[in-house]
Each structure stands twice: as structure tokens, then as C-alpha cells.
């Protein structure tokens, strides 16, 4: 990209405007929208790899594995980027297992999280030879043991500890507090580990925690780390050795002037504490999702209509809550930026989609200078957008393009109405 004319947009680590046009890796978004239509998700491979590199710098010289939490964005083309970069994967369903295997993952680098694994999912994951089950309850331990014994296997397990730490994020994405459904209580951990170690179908390999998502402060991580290490000492004193320590994901990204620590800075801080407590050489696992892909993607949408209202002006676009569910679900903020700048004064709009709900909004009170037919980019849309997309209002899911240097690859074609109707019947 020509540094003289490319200007980075404020509040985003990568997106730049060159000669007036918004770009991803030097590729004008308008060109891609014209070719593939809208709404369109566009991802940058390099920006994903840059985000991964920050973790790798933080773990330099350590025995560490980054397991990308694929729930953030499970498209095969995205998974392949991380598989080729040597990452492991954190999955939460049999469907996600099938996805990572289809993308070429090494099963030994796959860990399986989640509070509600079914027997069938356990069986599939055991047969695939995954690296670890992150078990979330005593009942699950017993079921996994039974499933493994029946198939004459031993399931590698880690137990998810609920450290009772406040991650200071949206309540729907806090997971490490006593009132949450996740993990086992700190006070019960030693007894549960003793029980697990006695079960013949299980092999205890580690311990894990995950305290929440979009965490923008290092302190909850430091607090959780101390509490997990206290437990590791107690569990090992009870005669159960732990091979790895998994600290989950959760690191936030900058959506709107948020200032999360960089992954390398955070992990340098955390490994310093691990060293101080004598755990610096232990195998470390992390499960980042959002921080690897969130700022590597945008959603391009077309302005359909401008509708002046009595109290508000509406800018109605062709993307909706079924494509970008985060504002409706968590009142989340995504920057919305025109692909091409227009001269003149901006007006204030609520940017909304065509879905028949007042909750279908993408941005509120945004100053925009736009006309119908203009294209807008919804930024930081790489995580928890396409992966949470639905067919509500019988809307087909958007197409996705992965840009890498000069190459733009359609990694998912737009969903057709035939795709949507294919599994439905009038009779059986
Ligand atoms: N590990 C476990 C066990 C998790 O439950 C999650 C996310 C992660 C790792 C990855 O967390 P991340 O690094 O992406 O924060 N849909 C919400 C976020 C839900 C997060 C669920 N668990 C959103 O759009 O904000």
C-alpha cells in the first residue's frame, strides 16, 4: 500500500482509506462488493496472522499452544488459516469437531469445551483422538468415563474451574462468576480431581478456566491465574499431577476506543507470574477467539433507503440482525463507515436492517453523510457475526471473502433460497 496516500481509520488497527476508498489489505472493498454482492463479510488473512503473532510473541520460549476458539468464526476458510499456522482448536460441539477436521486440523491439538457434551459427541471426539476434554461438571466426568470404557479408550481430561473472578464485561459473556453455569466450584476442585484420577476411562492431563469475553483489563486474568495456581498446588499435593494449564480465551478488542492489553503484553505479564510461582515451564494452553479474528473482518452493506422520522432518521441497510446479531443481543457497538466519502454535512441516523423487529439495529445515532445506494462497512465484524448468523425472516446468510495480498477468495457463497428450503418437507 502506498503510505503517502493510505490513511488508517481512527479506532481500528488495520482498516485504511486510500484515494478516498476503504480497503482491506490494499484491496478496495467496493470492488469486492460489486463482484460478490452485499451483505458481504471480508476478512484479511494477514490481520488474523498478525493477531496470532502477538500471542506467539507473548509465549516465546515457552511450551505453549494457541487453540483458536472456533465459535468466534468457524468458516472453513478461516479455520484453514489457523490450521496452516500450526494452531490448535477449541471446539464446543460435534459440528465444530467436523469443521476443524474438514479444515485439516491435527486432532491431537483439539480441545473440547462446553457444559453439555452429548454421549455421541464424546464418542466422535474420542474416535478422532482429540487432545483434551475440558470437563465442566462431576456428572459429565462420569458419563465421559463410561463412554470411554465402553469404547475401550481413555479420555484425556482437564476440569474447568470456576475461579469466581469478575471479568468486568457484559453479563451475558461473563462466565467465571459463582452464579454462572460454567466450570466446577473452586472449593470442590480437589475432591473432583481425586475422583477423576480414580476413574479408569479417564486420564487427567490438565486444568482450565475461562472467565468471560471482551475483557479489556489485565487484572481479572491475573486474579484468575493466582486462584488457578493455588488449586494446582492443592491438586498436585493430593497426588494428581497436571500436565498443562489452560487459561481460556476472552481478551477483548477495540470496537469503540476500548483499550484491551495487547496479547503479547498481557502474556508477558502472566508468564512473569507463572515464573515467580514456579510454573513457567509448564505446558500452557490458551483459547482465544475474538482477539484472533474480530478486527480482521468487516461486513459491507448497501444503503437501501433513507427514512426521515419524527424523532429519528433511519438509514435502512441490507444487512440485519440475522447477519450482525451483536448489537441486538448485547447492545454492542460496531463502527459504521462509508466506503467512499461524500462532501457536505452529515445527518444523524439509526442504522437498521430490514428485519421486522425494532431490535433490528446495527448502530444508533450515527453521524453519516450517505445516500441510498451507498456502501457502508461495519467494522470489527470478524468474530461472533457470521458464526451467529441465522435465517430469521428467511434471509439467506451472507457471502464471505478472504483477502490475502492480491488474492480474494470467496470462502462461502451467498446462501440461496434453495439451500434454505432443502431440508424441509410436507410429509415424511
Ligand atoms: N473458551 C471458552 C470455553 C469460551 O466459552 C469462549 C467464548 C472462548 C474460549 C473464546 O472467547 P473469546 O476469546 O472469543 O472472548 N457471542 C459473544 C461472545 C461469546 C463468547 C463465548 N465463549 C459476543 O459476541 O460478544
TrEMBL record:
One of its GO terms (molecular function) is diaminopimelate decarboxylase activity. Its EC number is 4.1.1.20. CDD domains: PLPDE_III_DapDC (cd06828). Pyridoxal 5'-phosphate binds at residues 250, 287-290, 384. Its cofactor is pyridoxal 5'-phosphate. Keywords: Amino-acid biosynthesis, Decarboxylase, Lyase, Lysine biosynthesis, Pyridoxal phosphate. InterPro entries: Ala_racemase/Decarboxylase_C, DAP_deCOOHase_LysA, De-COase2_C, De-COase2_N, Orn/DAP/Arg_de-COase, PLP-binding_barrel. Residues 54-293 form the Orn/DAP/Arg decarboxylase 2 N-terminal domain. The modification N6-(pyridoxal phosphate)lysine is found at residue 71. It catalyses: meso-2,6-diaminopimelate + H(+) = L-lysine + CO2. Specifically catalyzes the decarboxylation of meso-diaminopimelate (meso-DAP) to L-lysine. This is Diaminopimelate decarboxylase. The lineage of its organism: Bacteria, Pseudomonadati, Pseudomonadota, Betaproteobacteria, Burkholderiales.
Amino acid at each position: 500500500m502506498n503510505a503517502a496516500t493510505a490513511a488508517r481509520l481512527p479506532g481500528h488497527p488495520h482498516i485504511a482509506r486510500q484515494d478516498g476508498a476503504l480497503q482491506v489489505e490494499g484491496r478496495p472493498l467496493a470492488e469486492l462488493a460489486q463482484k460478490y454482492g452485499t451483505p458481504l463479510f471480508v476478512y484479511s488473512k494477514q490481520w488474523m496472522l498478525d493477531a496470532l503473532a502477538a500471542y506467539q510473541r507473548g509465549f516465546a520460549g515457552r511450551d505453549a499452544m494457541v487453540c483458536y476458539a472456533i465459535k468466534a468464526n468457524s468458516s472453513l476458510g478461516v479455520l484453514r488459516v489457523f490450521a496452516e499456522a500450526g494452531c490448535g482448536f477449541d471446539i464446543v460441539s460435534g459440528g465444530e469437531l467436523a469443521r476443524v477436521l474438514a479444515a485439516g486440523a491435527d486432532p491431537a491439538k483439539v480441545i473440547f469445551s462446553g457444559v453439555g457434551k452429548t454421549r455421541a459427541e464424546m464418542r466422535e471426539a474420542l474416535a478422532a483422538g482429540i487432545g483434551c476434554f475440558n470437563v465442566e461438571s462431576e456428572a459429565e466426568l462420569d458419563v465421559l468415563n463410561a463412554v470411554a470404557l465402553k469404547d475401550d479408550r481413555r479420555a484425556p481430561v482437564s476440569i474447568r474451574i470456576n475461579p469466581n473472578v469478575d471479568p468486568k464485561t457484559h453479563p451475558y459473556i461473563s462466565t467465571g462468576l459463582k452464579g454462572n453455569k460454567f466450570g466446577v466450584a473452586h472449593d470442590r476442585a480437589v475432591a473432583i480431581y481425586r475422583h477423576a484420577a480414580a476413574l479408569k476411562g479417564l486420564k487427567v492431563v490438565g486444568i482450565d478456566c475461562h472467565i468471560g469475553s471482551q475483557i479489556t483489563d489485565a487484572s481479572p486474568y491475573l486474579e484468575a491465574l493466582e486462584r488457578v495456581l493455588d488449586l494446582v498446588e492443592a491438586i498436585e499435593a493430593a497426588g494428581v499431577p497436571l500436565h498443562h494449564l489452560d487459561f481460556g480465551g476472552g481478551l477483548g478488542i477495540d470496537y469503540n476506543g476500548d483499550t484491551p492489553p495487547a496479547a503479547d503484553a498481557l502474556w508477558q505479564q502472566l508468564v512473569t507470574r507463572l515464573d515467580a510461582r514456579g510454573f513457567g515451564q509448564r505446558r500452557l494452553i490458551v483459547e482465544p477467539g475474538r482477539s484472533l479474528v474480530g478486527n480482521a473482518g468487516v461486513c459491507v452493506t448497501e444503503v437501501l433507503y433513507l427514512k426521515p422520522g419524527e424523532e429519528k432518521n433511519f438509514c435502512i441497510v441490507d444487512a440485519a440482525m440475522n447477519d450482525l446479531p451483536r448489537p441486538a443481543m448485547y447492545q454492542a457497538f460496531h463502527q459504521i463507515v462509508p466506503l467512499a466519502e461524500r462532501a457536505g454535512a452529515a445527518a444523524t441516523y439509526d442504522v437498521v436492517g430490514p428485519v421486522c423487529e425494532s431490535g433490528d439495529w446495527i448502530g444508533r445515532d450515527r453521524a453519516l453523510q450517505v445516500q441510498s445506494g451507498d456502501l457502508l462497512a461495519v467494522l470489527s465484524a470478524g468474530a461472533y457475526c457470521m458464526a451467529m448468523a441465522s435465517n430469521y425472516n428467511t434471509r439467506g446468510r451472507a457471502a464471505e471473502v478472504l483477502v490475502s495480498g492480491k488474492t480474494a477468495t470467496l470462502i462461502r457463497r451467498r446462501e440461496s433460497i434453495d439451500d434454505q428450503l432443502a431440508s424441509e418437507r410436507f410429509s415424511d
